[in-house]
Fold this protein.
Amino acid sequence: MPPTRRVLLGTLGAAALTTLAAAPARGHGPGSVPRPPIPLRLPAPTGPWPIGTVALHLVDRSRPDPLLPGKPYRELMATLWYPAQPGAGEPVARWLPPAAAADWDTYSAPALGVPTGAVDWRGIRTHARTGAPVARRAGRLPVILFSSGDGGSRALGTALVEELASRGHLVVALDSTYETEQVEFPGGRVERALPLPDDLTPDVIAALLARHSEARLADARFVLGTLDALARGDRPGAVTGPLPDGLAEAADPGRTGVLGQSLGGSVAAQLAHDEPGVRAAADLDGALLGPVATSGLAKPFLLMASGAKTLQNEPSWATCWAASTGPRHALRLRDAAHGSYTDLQVLLPRIARHLRLPDVAALIGTIDPCRSLAAQRTAVAAFFARYLAGRPTSFLDRPGDDWPELDVLR
């Protein structure tokens, strides 16, 4: 069987994920898939604002696609999440749009040990209203750019980005077309990830990750430019589709942070290193690539680790930490794993109530899923509240007072 995208997703932080990705499902062969498909829900956000969302189709005609040779422009999908006007009656958004959900069911779910047709992926709903007006009383909104691990859909961070939106941020979740396993564009067109090489040696993986990182950095700069244009009152040609009422006036690009999981976390740190307009970066369990790994950051930086990782035994963290001069915080979720920093943390245990799956602990650890998500939400929200919104908090220095699951790494 050729390697799946999920194999590569784990290479920046969890060797066990590689094993899990290639493992077949156990206990349910053909004809034994549950009927009806298992329904799933995401935990509701806890902030004071209801939330809205809109998916944007972005086209960058200033450069050829960095991953698909011969394509003369770069085409992206992004989802915006924001505090919404209370009482909005727009429809609730899906976790994945229909065609992407079908593709996930066919290709991505089996790589996790979940048979095709076993789960109602299309039926998973978020807590955001599609196209709802922006809450005017929320004022100008700090901006956070989010990206998932290599190969992972932007949807895998939904539970976390919804929390940030409910607390008064504008979050932009971005896919990397032809690297993300499936990206659905308007009209139901799905672009799949390019095939991986058959021989995934360490050198091949390193080259792939470097190429993907470079493409993501260029994508992020393009999106930040698009947001700047919107904040000036322009409607860039990159944006196709309607914008929610009040969105253009709401964004405050002067307070921009970046957040990512795995490769997305590495890109977040590098973007903060390179871009003067980015004020803070949070990395969820991602080893660092590029110059930031040795030159460090002079800006606020949050690193959240899993498993037995420390600032000493992950080489890129050690060198970055030693060279950094900005405020920095390193926390570790005890008994967590690399996949704990994705929506799989809460979705897989619910599936496992109905199906016998491969070793789920290899992917999401043994930490209680609800406590894991709540601790992540609290830590990430505290970080951006402190460094984007200017709201003092001592949580990052003493998280164990409320969350014994969180260790401070020094």
About this structure: Residues 1-31 have pLDDT under 50 and may be disordered. The longest strand covers residues 251-261. The chain has one domain: 5-408. The chain has twelve helices and 14 strands.
